[in-house]
Amino acid sequence: MSGPSTFNPAFRGSSNSTSTTYPRTQRFRDHLTDLPKEVQGGQRAPEAYDKSKLLKLEEDARRLRELIEQKESAKRQSLKEWDALEREANTAALKVELAEEHLRNQNGEADNGTAF
Question: DSSP secondary-structure letter at 15?
Answer without folding.
Answer: T
